[in-house]
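Section: Multi-chain targets

For targets with more than one molecule, the full set of components is provided together so that the structure can be written out for the assembly as a whole rather than chain by chain. Components appear in the order listed by the source. The example entry contains two components.
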Amino acid sequence: MPKWFVPLAAVTALMFAASPFLIANAPYEATMGLVQKIFYYHLPSAWVFLLSAIVCGIASARFLFGGSPRQDRLAYAAAELTVLFGAIVLVTGPLWARKAWGVWWQWDVRLTSSLMGWMVAWAYLLVRKYGGPGSDKLAAGLALFGMANVPFVYISVNYWRTIHPATSVVPTLPVDMGVALWFAVACFLLLFVLLLRLRVYLEEQRARLDTLYLSLDE
Amino acid sequence: MIRTAWLVLKKDLTVEVRSLEIAYTTLFFAVSCVLFFAFALVKEGKAPEDGAAGILWIAIAFGGTLALGRTFERERQSETLRALLMAPAARPAIYVGKLLGIVALLVAAEIILVPLVAFLFQAPLLSHPFWLGAVLLTGTLGFATVGTLFSAMLVRARSRDVLLPVLLYPITVPVIIAGVRATAALLQPDVELALVRFWVALLIALDVVFVTLALWTFEPLMTD
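Its structure, encoded as tokens over all components, is:
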């Protein structure tokens, strides 16, 4: 593991411990009240969810055409984190929506495309786990198609929903809210970097173990 | 290139016409799907609004998955896919031949499915035959493009029967959304052709992207 890992992990843990206080101190939003606080964890996890999906897609493309196992390990780790952060997004979202929109789920652009991205990440992991030999390439192909899909889901659902009034909450944030939000974003980004590094490390060790086993057999 | 694709297509069609195995099983399965939905959804002779559009596409997607799995299972059992890949032919051409075979099979199934759905759900599906044909053809092509690539890749994988739908459905969601919405638009009492045209344009764009990606990735994906 790199030297920066443990100190950074400690910093991130402290920041996460501090973030509820900042969020609690941020002013109440006038119409939604307490439930708006979900937003401070929802939005950062959504950004990290998208970021890890992009990392997975790019690493997959590079693996498919370059063949470097490092990129493959990175893609695998990113896909797992996509599922993790996607789960946070998809749990916190409906909790907020129930209060703000009155429904748990709406077939809106963002929601549909997030769900689809999440499902592609799940499919990626399922292929990796149950596909047997050669599944790394298969999964990389899937990730590529998954990436190409995002704009289409976006366009199609957007067009379909224009008939209905869209619930748009434009975040024109006061300073206190902004501080809490950006602090939470930093927390989640650091968490993502740490988990990604840890997960890649795990895969590196696994690959090393495999080569050791192979050399033992020979 | 075109000749290779044509030869692969001809081979697949010849094999299929001799046994009709995939055609019959796919069709039977798709028809069963439609019947189940008819039992569940049609009450007192009235079908839910837009129901026919969704059910037609579900039947195509489910039947298509079955056909895709079987097509490559046949190649796997007799080890002919290896022979095909070893042939001194461009890989993309082989892919195109396979793809056209599956599209032909699915279009044949749709020719029977559309009247059946129209009949069971009292849907005016055939009032705009040209646009319906365009929607079905572009949608089927998009679905089959991804399906052919993935099922070809899965030939070597373990538990391939389970994994095909797992891979295929999340990726083809935009195709299904566009197909269902376009078909639903065609079922309205006064059809808004601009809306249908938009969805068909989206389907064509999807087809272009999917075909390009598939031709581009087929070679590295099928190489060990």
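Chain B has a mean pLDDT of 89.
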